[in-house]
Amino acid sequence: MKAFDDDISGAVLPAASPLRDEWSCCVVEADHGTFRLGRIRRFDRWWYFKALVPQYRGSEQYRRILRKEFDIMIGLDHPGIIRAADFRDIPDLGPAILMEYSPGVTFDAWLEAGPSARRRRKVFAAILSAVVYLHSRGIVHRDLKPQNILVENDGTVKIIDFGLSDARWSALKMPGGGTPGYSAPEQLSGQEGDTRADVYSLGIILNMIRLPKVTPDGVAALIAARRCCGRPERRYADAGALKKALKRWRIALWGLITVALAAAIALAFYPQKNNVETSPKTSRVITPEVTDSGNPAADYPATVLSNGNSTEAPDMDAADINPAVNQPAANDAPVPVTGTSETPSPTTASAKKSGIDPHYDVAQYPAPPHPKMPAYARMHPTNGLKSITYYGEDIPEATVAQEARSLRDSFRQQTAMHFMLPTWDEATFNYLKKCYLCDITNIYTRHRNKDKWGEREKQELLRQCHYNEVKSLPFNSGNPPALPF
Q1: Fold category of 105-265 in CATH
Q2: Is the per-residue pLDDT at 10 higher than 70?
Q3: Which CATH code is given to the segment(s) 24-100?
Q4: Is this model's pTM higher than 0.70 or not?
Q5: Burial code of 309-344, b = ≥16 C-beta within 10 A, e = fewer?
């Protein structure tokens, strides 16, 4: 029976080889300044090593620097960071850090292979997760660059080389330095650099992955990278803040796309309502807002006249938000309307009783300058109500600051989205600025018609929305517009 068992597969198993304790197969891969990098074999497996070049092995100062790097690495336990195993004297190498071996290639070499956008996004998420872990433990890498990031075939990331790193608890502080093109400018000028220096390097790496600009992930990456590479006081405080910002931008952009699609479907399948709404007793006519000139065609935003025609919108100005409104005809006199029969206009008292303000006319938004360009997602004051409305006494009173914040956020998101579309040009930029004024006009008119706001609130809304600054923004086809908020 034993002979039969031995002949089942016909394989001859080799005798188990004993694990070899000595160091062998030492391969020096590079010398970088005072340090030597390579791999060495022990216990039948490969290890990375970092040691001193021969002329610095007897220096106590450089030995302390190498030991500090090991002390930082030995306390780290994250799948995206290379793990240190030991610090010891190795024959022919001297004091050295022993690290786990990774078969990956450098990040820039991995990008040259042309990975898909999904894989690039996944790898950057792994890099960001590792740096978030470092910052949460009070460690700044200070030399994040493609050559210090290894990427394996399955997408596993390993951050290496903590030679310039600093920790809050470390008594030995490293001077400024780094790699031009990847390290923050203040660090290259000699400053120590904090977590914002790593954020700068992450912004450079985020630009390198080049996500498609027509996707929410690509737009979010472009916006976040621009802030990462700005002045230190405008950067994200650390990698954790960058991660949260990317998530917020993605959610906001997906929401904007959802709203735009819903609006397109609604316009395609539901007929538009007529300007004249009838009731069993009387009919209500929404009349256009007029200025002191008495000519509705001179107003901006463009007003839909009673005969159905639309006027051209001239250049914007702060005076475009005009508190002057039509007053109801005395004694409810009939209001003549061109092209229709005369219908009586309700008095202010009867309008307030029914919850409708007859003097409010929603600003008409200009048409997109390109046929296939998505329309501007206008800003509606929802205020927690189940349906969008501009009328009624149940609208809660909102402050100028709250409304201005909503307007600024909406304009910022829509400008970022349109910048990524192929229709981005100066006409599109001017179209967005005109739509921004329409939003401001609607918010102001809504509160004014409820006798809540006056001239002081109008000027404050314009100031907090940075309207004059937005109006004068120059067009730049190559970069996103630098908004003043």
Answers
A1: Transferase(Phosphotransferase); domain 1 (1.10.510)
A2: no
A3: 3.30.200.20
A4: no
A5: eebebeebeeebbbeebeebeeeeeebebeeeeeeb
